[in-house]
Amino acid sequence: MSVKHTKEEIRSYNLKQIKRHVKISAKCKHYSVLNNLYSLIKHTKSKNILMYMPLEYEVDVYKLRRKLSNKCNIFMPFMVGLSLKMVKSRSPFLIDKFKVRQPVNRQIFKGYLDMAIVPVVGVDLSLGRIGHGKGFYDRFFSELNHRPKIIVFVQMIDLFYNKEITQKHDISCDIYMTPRQNYIKRGKNDRDFCRIGGWCHWRWSRISCS
User: Fold this and answer.
1) Which of 4, 60, 120, 166 could anchor a disulfide with 153, C-beta 3.0 to 4.6 Å?
2) pTM for the whole thing?
3) What is the mean pLDDT of the chain?
4) CATH of domain 25-207
């Protein structure tokens, strides 16, 4: 995808594209992302997983909760001030000022994550995240005392930019999943990932990140 202008303009353009896409496209398209995500979780034997409660135009990763409930510990981001904390996924949920569902549970988890699944508005050549511009996830990951073993960005449409747009403080992922194509940070394990559950048949792009 060719670059528009500034990061803010790209964010605004992408959000319009995503919302338009959701209105005219079948929502079942996100199931391909969910199936591949589930294969990745099983292959990596991830136990402690950070998910999110989706907005209407985001991949509904919460649908995986039932399949994983007996095998994994599922955590959700909970807004505290200008950052996020992790709490165990447990209903009921409340709607915050950004119209995001959040668990009522307030017991903060401070352990280690095997995997973090994060929604995006776009992704650049460094596999850096273009989000909504509030910086919640950037602050959250900078405050963690560890980096999750695997960070996965997911999105309903492919909005990969073949140019570096994000800054150093923006988080980056190991894998970017979309229904159309998937991107993986080039490394010694990338071939192993591509063979997970028939992944060799997916459309893959390996990205070399400095």
Assistant:
1) 120
2) 0.84
3) 82
4) 3.40.50.10420
